[in-house]
């Protein structure tokens, strides 16, 4: 297997289980998919054909970011003024956007996935969970298969959330009939994907999560059957929770969303929810007790105008936390590194109003790395240490952008922000992005193919 020796790293963010720390002026040796050694003056036989030397002078090296919530297919509806949340009510927006989603083709799902994953990789993300809940009938059932194809092309470590919607619009959902499935259809395809792709090995590049879209758009039986399948097959559960739907769930079922899902069993250490900005402290405490996790998506807060998620309360109660980009319907980029900065700045914005201290900037890097790995049930990603996956990214800080900042690598991303792409992103010991290129791929052609597919959809 190919080994890489990164020489003279200016700083490496490591984690020994007691919290992140920084090693200065050290080398990193990878061996196949794993990190072999981190330390000063590592020597290898430079004549060996399997060791590639990289001059890492000036580099800050970080563990790869872990994206825990996204909707890749929405990449094709970003930066569109006619779909701007600020100009439409939520109902108007849903009525306009879902018919567009229902016209997407299988090729759209493939090319939108390539587009989103490429942007994620460029900005240091090495593992991505995508919540793919859009299954137009004409597009068929092999949409997530195509996502795995896209991930393999780019070398992304990919967790596929097989979503679905089963409740008709006539019964209170927001989903057009062209995107509805039965519970049996949904569960059968989840089982097919698990059998075809799910790999539970330590350095797995492919995993499957059972992820019905959200309680307001699915029958109770859909969630009940999801729990049964996931627990039987040993895979994770995911859905949207606490983004304004709790009053609707209460009106339908006599209880808010967290209690509703706990009663079903859709909670626990194998379960994580997206968003959760509207939840009461008592609900967060229940989630902490059950070890149910939260994927915090900060950037939709700007666009949707919802309440800023109470991250300090979640952390204080012990809720497991990761970060997510969310889809282009509420975040027009796929840049998780930018989300680290946004998450920190939003907490600064509301700290005085909520009368709490701003969490340390380094905490948000932790949520985007080790926290995300924990939500996805991965023990070999999310931190840099010997034996862990060689998932990392590097920033050359010998630029004007970083003058005055280099004393604190732990806070740099959250507090200052990174305005450029990484200089290198490595996934599972393979370089996926370096010096502005995807090795072995023609980015211009990838972009042109995606644009050509987009042009076939009426928006």
From TrEMBL:
Name of the protein this chain belongs to: Amidohydrolase
Gene Ontology molecular functions: hydrolase activity, acting on carbon-nitrogen (but not peptide) bonds
Lineage: Bacteria, Pseudomonadati, Pseudomonadota, Alphaproteobacteria, Hyphomicrobiales
Key word Secreted present: no
Domain Amidohydrolase-related: 60-431
UniProt cross-references to CDD domains, sorted A to Z: ATZ_TRZ_like (cd01298)
Entry keywords, A to Z: Hydrolase
Keyword Cytoplasm: no
Record-linked SUPFAM superfamilies: Composite domain of metallo-dependent hydrolases, Metallo-dependent hydrolases
Family assignment from sequence similarity: Belongs to the metallo-dependent hydrolases superfamily. ATZ/TRZ family.
Any single Pfam family the record assigns to this protein: Amidohydro_1
């Amino acid at each position: 297997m190919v080994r890489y020796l990164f020489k003279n790293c200016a700083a490496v963010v490591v984690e020994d289980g007691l919290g992140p720390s920084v090693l200065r002026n050290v080398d990193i040796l990878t061996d196949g998919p794993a990190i072999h050694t981190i330390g000063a003056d590592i020597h290898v036989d430079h004549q060996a054909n399997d060791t590639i030397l990289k001059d890492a002078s000036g580099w800050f090296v970080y563990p790869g970011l872990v994206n825990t919530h996204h909707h890749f297919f929405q990449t094709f509806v970003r930066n569109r003024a006619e779909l701007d949340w600020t100009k439409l009510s939520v109902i108007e927006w849903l009525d306009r956007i879902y018919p567009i989603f229902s016209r997407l083709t299988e090729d759209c799902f493939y090319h939108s996935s390539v587009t989103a994953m490429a942007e994620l990789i460029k900005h240091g993300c090495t593992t991505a969970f995508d919540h793919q809940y859009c299954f137009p009938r004409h597009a068929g059932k092999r949409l997530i298969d195509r996502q795995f194809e896209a991930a393999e092309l780019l070398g992304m470590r990919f967790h596929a959330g097989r979503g679905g919607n089963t409740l008709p619009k006539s019964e209170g959902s927001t989903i057009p009939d062209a995107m509805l499935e039965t519970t049996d259809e949904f569960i059968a395809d989840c089982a097919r994907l698990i059998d075809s792709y799910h790999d539970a090995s330590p350095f797995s590049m492919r995993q499957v999560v059972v992820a019905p879209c959200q309680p307001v758009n699915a029958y109770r039986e859909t969630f009940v059957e999801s729990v049964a399948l996931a627990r039987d097959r040993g895979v994770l559960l995911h859905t949207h929770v606490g983004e304004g739907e709790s009053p609707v769930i209460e009106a339908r079922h006599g209880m808010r969303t967290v209690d509703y899902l706990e009663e079903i069993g859709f909670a626990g250490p194998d379960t994580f929810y997206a968003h959760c900005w509207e939840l009461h402290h008592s609900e967060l405490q229940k989630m902490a007790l059950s070890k149910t996790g939260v994927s915090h998506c900060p950037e939709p807060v700007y666009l949707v105008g919802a309440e800023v998620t109470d991250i300090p309360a979640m952390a204080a109660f012990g809720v497991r936390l990761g970060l997510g980009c969310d889809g282009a319907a509420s975040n027009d980029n796929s840049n998780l590194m930018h989300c680290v900065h946004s998450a920190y700045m939003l907490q600064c914005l509301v700290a005085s109003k909520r009368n709490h201290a701003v969490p340390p900037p380094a905490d948000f890097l932790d949520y985007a790395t080790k926290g995300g790995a924990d939500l996805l049930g991965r023990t070999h990603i999310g931190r840099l240490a010997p034996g862990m996956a060689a998932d990392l990214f590097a920033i050359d800080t010998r630029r004007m952008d970083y003058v005055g900042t280099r004393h604190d690598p732990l806070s740099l991303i959250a507090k200052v922000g990174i305005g450029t792409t990484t200089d290198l992103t490595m996934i599972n010991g393979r370089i996926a992005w370096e010096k502005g290129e995807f090795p072995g791929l023609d980015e211009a052609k990838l972009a042109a193919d995606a644009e050509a597919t987009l042009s076939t959809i009426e928006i």
